[in-house]
């Protein structure tokens, strides 16, 4: 993965101690850094955590699926689960997902895919969309990275960084649509968190 460096002046201005002069930022990270879904899970048991009810969200993912679940072709493919917390069915034809903010249309969802209100949709991140309508043209990095979803007009719906995950563990919202995250062995693909 290529990386860009920021001079240590940025660290000094931010009030941080430099640790070698530069910090490394993955190229797949968007430059804005304006995201409510941080990788850190500060308070996973907070019953007052925010629940997203106004849009479709990335609800869960697994980047190191070795045997937790198998796709429609019998392969242990990495996966991304979407959750619709709105009161309407969301048609996904023309929506896109990516793991590279410079290419928001890396994998376009076909017409006919939809998520009902309160529903889940499991997408397979195996790098080959020709395998079916729920398969994506990119795979997930076991070491962690960021993924994004964009609506049919190209507007960013969500950009989500996620950490390195142990084998067969998902990065999962504590509850469907909530802002807090945790690692879950085996995950809950296609089901409520």
Walkthrough of the structure:
- The structure is a single chain.
- This protein is mainly β.
- The protein folds into two domains: about 1-30, no CATH class; about 55-185, Immunoglobulin-like.
- About 5% of the residues lie in helices and about 30% in strands.
- The chain has one helix and 13 strands.
- The chain has a five-stranded antiparallel β-sheet with strand order 9-4-3-12-13, with no helix packed on it. Strands 7-6-10-11 form a four-stranded antiparallel β-sheet, with no helix packed on it. A two-stranded antiparallel ribbon has the order 1-2.
- Strand 10 and strand 11 form a beta hairpin.
- It is globular and about 35 Å long.
- Residues about 1-30 and about 30-50 have low confidence and may be disordered.
Strand content: 25-35%
Low-confidence stretches: 1-28, 31-49
Number of domains: 2
Helix content: under 10%
End-to-end gap: 32 Å
Main sheet: strand order: 9-4-3-12-13
Query: Biggest β-sheet, characterized?
Result: 5 strands, antiparallel
Write the H/E string, N to C. Answer: EHEEEEEEEEEEEE
| Coarse structural class | mainly beta
Number of helices: 1
Shape descriptor reads globular
Task: Round the mean pLDDT to the nearest integer and report it.
Answer: 81
Radius of gyration, Cα only, in angstroms?
Answer: 17 Å
Q: Name the CATH class of the largest domain.
A: Mainly Beta
Number of E strands: 13
Task: Report the CATH architecture of the largest domain.
Answer: Sandwich
């Amino acid at each position: 993965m290529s990386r860009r460096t920021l001079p240590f002046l940025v660290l000094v201005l931010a009030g941080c101690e430099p640790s070698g002069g530069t910090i490394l930022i993955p190229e797949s990270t968007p430059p804005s850094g304006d995201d409510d879904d941080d990788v850190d899970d500060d308070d996973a048991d907070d019953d007052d955590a925010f629940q997203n009810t106004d849009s479709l969200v990335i609800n869960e993912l697994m980047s190191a699926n070795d045997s937790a679940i198998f796709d429609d072709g019998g392969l242990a493919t990495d996966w991304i689960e979407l959750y619709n917390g709105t009161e309407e069915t969301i048609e996904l034809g023309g929506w896109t997902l990516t793991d590279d903010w410079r290419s928001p249309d890396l994998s376009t969802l076909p017409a006919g895919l939809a998520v009902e209100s309160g529903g889940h949709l499991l997408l397979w991140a195996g790098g080959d969309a020709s395998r079916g309508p729920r398969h994506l043209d990119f795979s997930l990095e076991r070491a962690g990275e960021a993924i994004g979803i964009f609506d049919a007009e190209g507007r960013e719906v969500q950009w989500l960084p996620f950490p390195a995950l142990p084998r067969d563990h998902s990065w999962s919202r504590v509850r469907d649509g909530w802002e807090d995250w945790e690692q879950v062995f085996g995950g809950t693909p296609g089901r409520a968190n």
